[in-house]
Amino acid sequence: MGRTTALPLKWVMNKIMMGVIHSAKVLPFDKRSALGGKITGGFGGRLSGFRKRTERNLEYIWPDKTQAERDQIADQVLDNAGRTIFENFYPEGFGKRHPEVHVWGDGLPALMEAHAAGRSIIVVSGHFGNHEAMRLGLFQHGIKVGGMYRPMTNPYFNVFYEKALDQDGRSGPLFPANRAGTRGFRRALKDGGVCLALLVDLAVPKGSEITFMGKPAMTATSAAAFALEADALYVPYFSMRNPDRKTFSVEIAAPISGPTALDMTEQATRVLEERIEKDPGNWFWVHRRWKPFFK
After folding, report:
1. Among 100, 282, 89, which Cα is nearest to 201's?
2. Where are the domains of the chain?
C-alpha cells in the first residue's frame, strides 16, 4: 500500500519542481540565481533546517567568533547554496553567462601537462562555491570533467537531474555512487585520459578519522587510493563564487603525492581548511560533516 502511494506523490512533486524550473526561465539568468539565493537564505533555509544546522556547525568550529560574524557567514552560505541550485538547473544558460571562467593556480600547468600526455587526473575538493564552474572552466581549456554523483531519490526528477549534470555536452564520463559506478570509475582511470572529480568533505561512516577544522571527522580516502592505483594526477581545486555573487574564479592548487592514500587525503584536507579559513562563506556548512562526533 505504502509503495503504490509513494510513486504518485513523487510524480506530483516532480511536476511541481519542474513547474518552478520552467516558470523561472522568464527571468534573466542572474535574477534566477538571485531568486534561489533569496529562497534558501530566507524561508527555504529555515523550513529545510539548513539555517539551524549551519549556525550550529559554525558555533561548534568557531565558538570565539561573535554572533554577528557567524550570522554573516551563514547568510553567505545559504545564499550560495540557493544560487548554486538554481544555476545548475540551467546548464545552457550557465555556459552563456560565463563565456570565460578565470582558471588559475600553481597546479594548472601540471594539470594541462597530464591532460596533454593522456594521463588520468583526479581533481578533488569540498562543497565549495559552485562545482560546475570548475567543470565549465576546464572545458574552456579543452578538458571534459566527469565524476561520481548521487542519483536523486525521486526517479522522475532524476531524469532531469542527470541531463543537467551533463552540462550541455561539456561533461566527461559520469558514474552513479554505487558499486557498479565505482567499478566504472576505477576502470576509466586505469584506461587513461580522463579527468574525474571527487569531493572529500562528506562524513563517511567507514572512512578514516582525520581532523578537519580542528575537530575529528570521518573522511573517505578512496579518491587518493584510486589515484595511486591508476597513477593518476591528484590535484585539489576550488570553484569559488566571487564577491559579486555572480561570477567565479577557479583555483587549481599544487598536485599532491603519496606515499599513502591516508597521507594524500590529509594533505588535501589541510589545503581545503586553508581555503575555508580565507573564504568561509563559500563552503557548504550545511552538511553534518563532523558526525558521529557532533550531530
Report:
1. 282
2. 2-282
Cβ atoms of 196 and 121 closer than 8 Å: yes
Sign of CA dihedral 61, 107, 233, 191: positive
- Bridge partners of 12, per DSSP, are none
Average of per-residue pLDDT across 52-68: 97
Written as nine digits, the cell of 254 is 599544487
Q: Which residue type does 5 have? A: T
The whole-number pLDDT of residue 6 equals 54
d(CA 105, CA 111): 10
Alpha-carbon distance 131 to 127, whole Å? Answer: 7
pLDDT (0 to 100) of residue 7: 59
CB 36 within 8 A of CB 85: yes
Q: Which three cell numbers stand for residue 265?
A: 587525503
CB 92, CB 164: distance < 8 Å: no
- Prediction pTM value: 0.91
- Model confidence over 267-283: pLDDT tens digits? 999 999 999 999 999 99
Strand-pair category, 102-104 with 215-219: unpaired
| Local confidence band at 124 (pLDDT 50, 70, 90 cut-offs) | very high
- Cβ-based neighbours of 219, under 8 Å, separated by 6 or more: 200, 201, 203, 204, 207, 208, 209, 210, 212, 265, 269
Cell numbers 570509475: residue: 185
Dihedral sign, CA of 30, 134, 251, 112?
negative
